[in-house]
Amino acid sequence: MTDDSPQTLLMIDDHPLFRRGVLQLLAEAPEFRVVGEASDGREGIELARKLEPNLILLDLNMKDMSGLDVLKVIKGWDLDSRVVMLTVADEAGDLIAALRAGADGYLLKEMDPDDLVGKLKQAAAGEVTLTERLTRLLAHSMREDSRPRHPDEAGLTEQERRILDLIAQGMSNKLIARELAISDGTVKVHVKHLLRKLNLHSRLEAAVWAVEKKKAAS
Questions:
Q1: Nearest to 207 by CA among 138, 121, 140, 133
Q2: CA 116 to CA 66: how far, in whole Å?
Q3: pTM of the full predicted structure?
Q4: Three-class SS state of 72
């Protein structure tokens, strides 16, 4: 965490029993302060805009509006909220679609409660939030010839390399800007450029790609 204050949290899920169980679990974690819950996508969008929470837990499959559509709306605003998908879907297509729409993490509802709380703490701290199985799934789906095999092949500038390393450490644009003494807007431009050079679509894909390349080089 960046400070000692609890992370404000909003949960959007149309399964009341599951929602209640997760919120009761998080109520016992001093790192979080639940500020709202929504039973459908439209209500969730309204609460996200009103409350501007630090962290949003979002179900992928809801009856009134898909989680992906909700995610796209929220990510279209200039909010610092991190959005973690919490779902039963473990298909590569769903995972990649969510990440490319801007999800900051993707967790499965089948997780052990303690593991779930641990992963949400990582998400609140700005870290990459995927289970090991989903990380392997994403890495496998990214092994395509159209992608550079090394940062040198991508033609990244020194600044883009530094930013990629910080993304891999889980830093947000705001933290990267602070670390490099540049503006948030400048970071966004660099991120856009490096994603294009790497033929990737999201920060989380870039983080997984960078970590995989470091493992391969070690």
A1: 138
A2: 22
A3: 0.70
A4: helix
